[in-house]
Amino acid sequence: MSVAPPGGRRAPTLALTGILKRFGPTLALDDAGVVIRPGTVHALLGENGAGKSTLMRIAFGLLAPDAGTITLDGRPVHFASAAAALAAGLGMVQQHFSLVPAMTVAENVALGGRGRFDAARAAAVVRRIGEATGLGLDPGARVGELAVHAQQRVEIVKALARDAAVLILDEPTAVLAPAEAHEVLGWVRRFAEGGGSIVLITHKLADALAVADDLTVLRRGRVVRSAQRATWSHDALVAAMLGEVPEGPAVAPSVRPPGDEVLALEGVTYADARGVVRVEDVSASVRAGEVVGIAAVEGSGQHELLRLLAGRLAPTRGLVRRPATVGFVPEDRHRDAILLDAPLRENVALRGLGAARGRMPWEALRARTRELMARFDVRGPGPEAPARALSGGNQQKLVLARELDPPPPALVVENPTRGLDLRATDAVLGRLREARDQGLAVVFYSSDIDEVLAVSDRVLAMHDGRLVASDATRESVGRAMLGATP
Amino acid sequence: MDPQDPGGRRLMADALTGFLEAAVRTATPLAFAAMGETIAERAGVINVGLEGCVMAGAFGALVAAGAGGVGAGFATSAVAGAALAALFALCVVRLGTDQIITGTAMTLLGLGGTGALYRTWYGAGGAALSVPTAGPMAVPGLSKLPVVGPAFFSQPVVTYLAALLVPVLWWFLYRTHAGLALRAVGEAPEAARAAGVATARLRTLAVVAGGALGGLAGGTLVLAQAGTFAEGMSAGRGFVAIAIVVLGRWHPVGAALGALVFGAATALQFLIQAMGWTLPYQLFLALPYVLTLGALALARGRGRPPAALGQASG
């Protein structure tokens, strides 16, 4: 059964050309473009930060491009807001849903309309779309109480209720169980056969190859290749996503043989609050004096794996063995690692604060902060300056200094170079090697596979919540984390 | 007194009528202010400056009623409340300032500003000015009902306006797309924006409308109750109204019922006096406030505020 866009609107040809977008000093999109043909599924692939979501957020009017044009059926359009894009027949389901949890399905679908609001009529719209498309929902159900896949359905129905003929889905299967993902992809295919267009932003090669008519690969803000499905092979996709980098000595040599096991996972499974399995039956061990790198695309379960190792999450099943203190450098340092408006000495004092009692030894902490700043090359005005006064690289160095002194037996580091310039990146990665040489067990994840390979003694590739075997070569690790069969 | 005595029974009926009439009269300004605050809070903005809006409205009523009569007084009170609320909205919605701090500043501005203007324009002597007042308007037929007739159907016209506002506001919030959008802005502004709602404009409008009702509450105090203006005459009603919003679970019907309960608590002193019971009057003056605290403690955990209430993002 094919499902036509319920409004009967024919999908226009959506074309983006020469799109340029800067975020501060970084060029997120550099002369990027894509053409979405009517009645097709168009997969948009690329590593983390390749610019897939940014490009589509521009198409949907959520971001303004710095340069470039958008056309619908050849007519140039300018979307100043999502409302304008909606009116032109575009719809977007973002990775983080835009729903009002306290309201019902019908109210969420009706949101953004004009004039009188009739709950019964809004419910009828939900039911009508459900019958026409197979996306059945209870119009009176409170959205906050729905499971994730049903919330995603609400998002799609919302877009269809606005007569969207071009529907952008950002990582629609990332949060779903396999059976639910299969169902959504089946629906995507049918929607295109009914004349609608779908843009599928995804990390998952298998999904893209299974349902897409056209595939476009982005890397570092540029389009690597855009072509019809028949011209793509699995290997060609992997190569396009990872880029051609000369194969060098991938893994950094260790100074001395690793010592005793410090961290260990035995058959560990972790399911999140919604019951979606994020980490599945993972066994691994990390020994003193080695850096174990994790290679994975976003949403593969590495976020949870690192927190299981650091003791921030408890496993649903299985056993985690770890020392009492594990240093942890989380990805979002502004949210999870430092107090931006507090002086540096207070940020240093945060370590182990939960177990500390009594008066604050500020004089000693001030001296310690000064000493750490000198030793770890943190450039800033001094212990009394707020963390906000430091550059991102120096903030990260301070966080590392705090976590490394006194040295814990193990250190877990998540994307520590995000947003840092080259110098700061080198400094941070150097610290990780130093920590290893001092005998720490280090677990290191970076979204940049080359960084993982450059720093780690061993690399574990992760795909879909599981560890995947691979050789220590760039190609093998890359293929493993993208879910390619060896 | 002897219940068989017809004179005594008459006295009791009169006392009851007086009590109900006073309850409704006292509840009217609270209902206006609480419904106004309900609108603002449903859009995610907690307007702690409501007390200032009430004072601005009271002073506006004084100025305009002296020159243009009761009708002009009420209209100006709403405009004055809306103007102060617009200043508040400019700060919190457009400039992203903290809602509690800014609201506190608005309360102080409303209290201090009206006091200063009053002394400048009307002299520092504090001589009570008398302004034209809105007399009771009897509803034909209904006002002749025993006990409840005089209590409910022989009230100033603004009381009927407040009563009419309850279903109108309910209809707006739950039966129009604008109301749906307003509630969505208070719950999940990002989601509302993604659905094409102009969140900042809607928040601003909600705050201004809420301020107009707060101003009307002040106008009611001057034109339908006191017949004069005094510095600080709002006497915490703006804050009580904010508490009523919580008790009324952010619903217009709840706000109106809450206002009636507090009106009744205040009116209790008239009933007690009429019945000739002797109790320290301070007890009754304190009663509405004690009731506020008690009711807030009881309401804890029941009902749920809008999820984005007080958040800067709009």
Structure report:
The complex is a heterodimer of chains A (486) and B (314). Chain A is of the alpha/beta class and 486 residues long. Chain A has helices at residues 52-59, 82-87, 105-110, 119-133, 148-161, 178-193, 205-211, 234-242, 302-310, 333-336, 344-349, 362-375, 392-404, 422-437, 449-455, 474-481, and strands spanning 14-23, 26-36, 41-45, 67-72, 75-77, 90-93, 166-170, 197-202, 214-219, 222-228, 261-271, 277-287, 290-295, 317-321, 326-329, 410-414, 441-445, 458-463, 466-468. Chain B has 314 residues and is mainly α. Chain B is globular, with a radius of gyration of 20 Å. The chains are: A alpha/beta (486), B mainly alpha (314). The interface between A and B is medium-sized, with 27 and 23 residues.
Features:
heterodimer, A: 486 residues, six-stranded mixed beta sheet, 19 strands, 24% strand, B: 314 residues, ABC transporter involved in vitamin B12 uptake, BtuC, two-stranded antiparallel ribbon, 73% helix, globular
Quick synopsis:
The complex is a heterodimer of chains A (486) and B (314). Chain A is α/β, with parallel strands linked by helices.
